[in-house]
Amino acid sequence: MHVPSILVVDDEPMISGMLEKVLKRKHYNVKIADSGKLALESLHDGEFDLVITDVYLPDYNGMEILRKAKQADPSTGVIVITAHSSVESAVEAMKVGAYDYLTKGFSLDEIELTVEKFFKYQRLVKENELLRSELGSRYGIENIIGNSPEMQNVFEIVEMVAPSNATVLIQGASGTGKELIAKALHQKSHRRDRPLVKTNCAAIPEGLVESELFGHEKGAFTGALRTTKGRFEMADGGTLLLDEISEITPNLQAKLLRVLQEKEFERVGNPESVRVDVRIIATTNSEVPDEIAKGNFREDLYYRLNVVPIHLPSLKERREDIPLLVEHFFEKYTAENKRSIDGIEQSALDQLMQYDWPGNVRELENTVERAVVICRDKHIGPQHIYFGSNGRKFVAAGKRPPSDNPNDLQSEATTLRAMEKQLILKTLSEENNNRTRSAKKLGISVRTLRNKLQEYRREDDRDEP
Q1: Do 442 and 427 meet the contact criterion of CB atoms below 8 Å apart?
Q2: Domain check: are 150 and 295 in the same one?
Q3: What letters, b where the CB count within 10 A reaches 16 and e where it falls short, cover 73-92?
């Protein structure tokens, strides 16, 4: 465990001795320097989390100690103390980077509290930096999987465009990863420290879209009990992600166009304009030119949004990425579900490669998760692969269809829960209803097996006429 180290710089033995005693009592590592020269030597030779320095020293001004400490390590905190307090010196110290400024005559409780507050502040700063680093790692392009030429082209565009303020339109079928690309654009931009606000245009009731985007005043409509900021104001300084932009109404499209052009809007119920600095990233799974031809989408808004277009290919268009994605999801869900599965058989991977994936990466992820959950063997094989939301088997050309044996997992098992039930009942049948052996084979406790069977009996009782 790291014990914070503090350098105390003061030429008065009584002050430095008192500070040393108080700080050591709180289990800090403390070093005393009775001159500016010794303080600078100490800063050169060692690292300190905090420096407490007098302003007036025999050989140096404490402001110089402050500057040198911050130059050596910007994260080092500095508390300045002096017997001659003035507003000017306090302001100067804070401008140079002091954490706090105390006048001699401070109480022991005051110095203890100030030091404690600094280290609490320092911990929060480090935690914030770690969180930002994790966010950057999670949404960095290097962690969006794809070695295919199509995805490498997408990554190249993201790297070029992210630092700019240009509006981006991400187009692609559902499940291709549009939101991941939007988050990577934000995380790699200079706006990363400001909010990324997401709005699913298709999920907001038509009558509330304008209020959601632009906000409203108290009393603007029935139920408007207080003034509320919209998504544009919430994203000020950051990025606004307009998901499924093609779903907004023509009337709202005109208002959105104005915001893009003039960087201002009015809240519902207030004629005063509100100015914002927001970068727009929009996504759609529709062919917008087709919607324009049908009269459903404004052409001028499309050109405003489509400054930088990014097209995400379907999984069918980049089959060479399937093994990488399968490996990623396999590792993710074996860890999450605490499963000991050695790998995936080549025959199962061949099935995954042959399927056309209408649900794209999202469907592939669901399929791998389902296989991990139901597999009770050392490897995932073709018998564990079920495709689509209805959990049906996929039969490639020339392949044998699924077995009609009632002991096999049936294609009629349309949900993960139904397949789990079939697997449990099948295992009990194989083990002659011996629950201990069945639970061991299934990799669950006897208690869990008993609870599952009770659930199934209750469900069967409810289904009886």
Answers
A1: yes
A2: yes
A3: eeebbbbbbbeeeeeebbeb
In a domain, 439, yes or no: yes
* Coil vs helix vs strand at 7: strand
The strand ranges marked E within 123-216 are: 168-171, 196-200
**Would 405 be classed as within a structural domain?**
no
Backbone angles phi, psi at 142, to 5 degrees: -60, -15
Residue with tokens 């966010």: 135
- CATH value at residue 374: 1.10.8.60
Write out the residue range of the structural domain in which residue 440 sits. 417-465
Q: Which two tokens stand for residue 252?
A: 């709202």
Q: Within this chain, do residues 442 and 341 fall inside the same structural domain, yes or no?
A: no
pLDDT values of the chain reduced to their tens digit, one per residue, 465 residues: 678 999 999 988 988 999 999 999 989 999 999 999 999 999 888 889 999 998 888 888 888 899 888 888 888 999 988 776 566 677 778 888 888 888 877 888 888 999 999 998 888 877 766 665 554 445 456 568 888 999 999 999 999 999 999 999 999 999 999 999 999 999 999 999 899 999 988 888 777 888 889 988 888 888 778 888 889 999 999 999 999 999 888 888 988 998 998 888 888 888 888 899 999 999 999 889 999 999 999 999 999 999 999 999 999 999 999 999 999 999 999 999 888 899 999 999 999 999 999 999 999 999 999 999 999 889 999 999 988 655 555 544 334 434 334 344 444 444 566 777 888 888 888 887 888 888 888 878 777 888 888 887 777 665 554
Phi, psi of 429 (to 5 degrees): -65, -45
Tokens 């207080």 belong to: 226
CA distance 274 to 263: 8
- 3-state SS class at 195: coil
Tokens 């469900």 belong to residue: 459
| In a shared domain, residues 153 and 292 | yes
- The structure's pTM equals 0.59
Cβ neighbours, 10 Å, residue 304:
18
Contact 80, 66 (CB under 8 A): yes
Cβ contact 396:385 at 8 Å: no
Q: Which two tokens stand for residue 151?
A: 């995805």
| In 29-118, beta strands by DSSP E | 29-33, 50-54, 77-82, 100-103
